[in-house]
């Protein structure tokens, strides 16, 4: 995938640092907390791209240990951390998005259809992925149960390719991941519409965990 940015990644990391430094003074402000989630979310997205590049390079170099390391951090650390952050704010919840859709209905049957449409809109946008990811959102619940599962499948397929010596086939992967995507739309799982966790504390933990290496990579530029 294309990971090129039109802005300096280091600027986002610096904004993240400055927002957290103002937390003691502004932490009770709803507008501040929204911005903190939004900037932390963007910083995490940049990190996703970084790990993807590491995964791709490891695969192309037939470096299985490096692929497992980068893939493991992405799937089992970064994406769950991002989901916890998003789940701490009411405006970044998949459950809220789905409940708002259901609230427009005049019957139970209509509510089910509206929820199905709401799930489709932020994922496949069409019965066959007609405009896949066109309206993608980073929402608590969606990151963990949709994007993380897609990434996990991607890493697993690459690992299997290196282990077996068989080449990676994009078309076959697309067919497999489509089943994951459709499965999410129809899973009928209920998602919380009320936030959980301390936004400031979660963002601070992510900062301490990822900021130093992220800043080094962004300042170093492309390898």
Automatic annotation (TrEMBL):
Source organism, top-level taxon: Eukaryota
Sorted alphabetically, which InterPro entries does this protein's record hold?
NAGLU (IPR007781), NAGLU_C (IPR024732)
Q: Which Pfam families match?
A: NAGLU_C
Q: Where is the Alpha-N-acetylglucosaminidase C-terminal domain?
A: 3-209
Q: What's the protein here called?
A: ANAG acetylglucosaminidase
What species is given as this protein's source? Answer: Chaetorhynchus papuensis (pygmy drongo)
Task: Give the gene that encodes this protein.
Answer: Naglu_0
